[in-house]
Amino acid sequence: MSSTTPPVDPRAPLPPAVVILGNDAQLAARPATPVQLAHACLAAGFRAAIPASWGDELVAAATLGVIESRSVRPVIHCACPHVARRMLAVGTELAANLVSLVAPPVAAAKYLRSHATEGIRVTYVGRCPAASDDSIDARLTPEELLAQLAERGIDLLDQPEVFESVIPPDRRRHYSLPGGLPAPEQLWNRTGLRVETLSGDDFTTDVAERVLSRADVLIDAALATGCVCSGAIRGAPAADARTIVASLEPPRSPTAVIEERGTPPMEVPIPIVARTVSDLAIVSPSRGLPASRVERELPPVLAILQPPTGATEAHPRRPRLTPPGSPVVAGPPQAASAASPPPPRRR
User: Are strands 98-100 and 281-282 parallel, antiparallel or unpaired?
Assistant: First the structure.
């Protein structure tokens, strides 16, 4: 007898639905508070509303652990696809410096699944491109969620501003800043590094100088690349993004908020990004370092962080650091010779 798959019973109960509310979703819900947004999600049928800070805490704790196990300096925080794309635009020259981790929404989803006693359906609300991960079942933009709540007659501003009858997920932070970056005091106490946050579209020179000098810093390029998990949304100054997100949150916790036992792995392989000849730019030795020291101790570094092709720069480029006459763009030998002007004729 041939076996057949039994039909799905439409009356079977669906798995509990939980929603992960991204930092950009909480910003989009203003003037409603994150607590009111969570209440609205519960009224819409979700079993639980998980704050983005859970994913941030998991990523920040994993970042500290990875840094403690490595000796390479500086370290580049890479928990955002936008950061990975810029850092690896033309190859893997910076791979040794990257701390490559899952994005905060994926970290939260994996954590929820690993601790669930039954099957769950995970919905993420936000614009993080990493939400296509298999750990997330459904994805909504903040605008789509707000529209669905409005269609159901759920007014955010009518929701309670506190939790009374249920114990909500803890929204405090201990290890993290928005986007999964370790808090400066946590980073310093455990690794002796300080955070250096990049700004502007053209941060190539800044990263190259830190790599050449082997600076004891954790490089943060999330805001400069438009990471929504860090609070970088349209119309808000990037420099104030994390401060704005933090203003919606309760005071920091003196102890860890997330149970770390049984936490799934957060590290991911270094992604491979397509490279093109036009992305290769030679960077000169760092300012402030003697040329002899650079030549003796440090190999040349390729600046692989150029903005995507066709992107416009919001800030003027810095003065070039290469000596006059040195090539800025490296290409095939035949292309370079074809583009060079012919020697002047003697008269």
Answer: unpaired
pLDDT digits (tens, 9 = 90+) for 17-60: 999 999 999 999 999 999 999 999 999 999 999 999 999 999 99
Domain limits, the chain: 17-246
| CB atoms near residue 264 (< 10 Å) | 15
Residue identified by tokens 């100088």 is 209
Whether the CB-CB separation of 59 and 83 falls below 8 Å is answered with no
Give the integer Cα–Cα distance in Å for 98 and 235.
29
Peptide bond into 343 cis (omega under 30): no
Degrees (nearest 5) of the Cα angle 240, 241, 243?
65
**Burial degree of 226 (CB within 10 A; 0-12, 13-18, 19+):** middle
The whole model's pTM is what? 0.75
d(Cα 196, Cα 206) in Å, to the nearest integer? Answer: 10
Q: What is the predicted pLDDT for the residue at 58? A: 97
Pairing of strands 17-21, 48-51: parallel
DSSP 271: P
Helix or strand run (H / E) with residue 18: strand 17-21
Measuring CA to CA, which residue among 246, 218, 241, 243 is closest to residue 66? 218
Residue 53 near residue 176 (C-beta atoms within 8 A):
yes
What DSSP line would sit under 183-201, residue for residue?
Answer: PHHHHHHHHS-EEEE--SS
Inter-helix orientation angle 52-68/104-115, to 10°:
100
Q: What does the alpha-carbon distance between residue 136 and residue 238 come to, in Å, rounded to a whole number? A: 27
Task: Tell which residue, 200, 206, 207, 191, has the closest CA to residue 94.
Answer: 207
Separation of alpha carbons 279 and 305, rounded Å: 8
Q: Can you name the residues that pair with 21 across neighbouring β-strands?
A: 51, 125
